[in-house]
Design goal:
One of its GO terms (molecular function) is oxidoreductase activity. This protein is α+β, with helices and mostly antiparallel strands. Helix content is 27%, strand content 29%.
């Protein structure tokens, strides 16, 4: 059954969800960028106040087996848009933004508030 939510549901809570597409930075080895993102940036992002869910999806290859067109995507979810706005004013969120340059192109991180359409649950 298809259902749409204006916010994202996790464990019974309705959440405000943001998605980021992450492109690698020139001059860094792809495997090193993915390792840094997972081992350094992920734990840093996990400290953002009010964060209820954080996941990274690392791109392994393109659909035809070639090189992946980007590093991957990340999702952050908060209880509400207000909680997200509060989080963006925190020193922890500022540290996350400043850390992006260590593994990704900080000038190319498309970001959007997203809405899921669930077909199979």
């Amino acid at each position: 059954m298809l259902h749409a939510t204006s916010q994202w549901r996790l464990g019974g809570w309705i959440m405000f969800k943001i998605m980021f597409v992450v492109y690698e930075r020139e001059g860094i080895d792809r495997d090193e960028a993915l390792r840094y993102w997972r081992e350094q940036h992920g734990p840093l992002a996990s400290k953002v106040p009010g964060l209820r869910y954080y996941a990274q999806t690392h791109a392994l290859s393109s659909a035809d087996g070639g090189s992946a067109p980007y590093l991957g995507s990340a999702e952050m979810a908060f209880d509400s848009q207000g909680a997200f706005v509060e989080a963006t004013a925190s020193p922890e969120f500022d540290a996350v933004l400043k850390d992006v340059v260590n593994f990704a192109d900080p000038d190319n991180v498309p970001t959007a508030v997203v809405q899921d359409y669930v077909f199979v649950d």
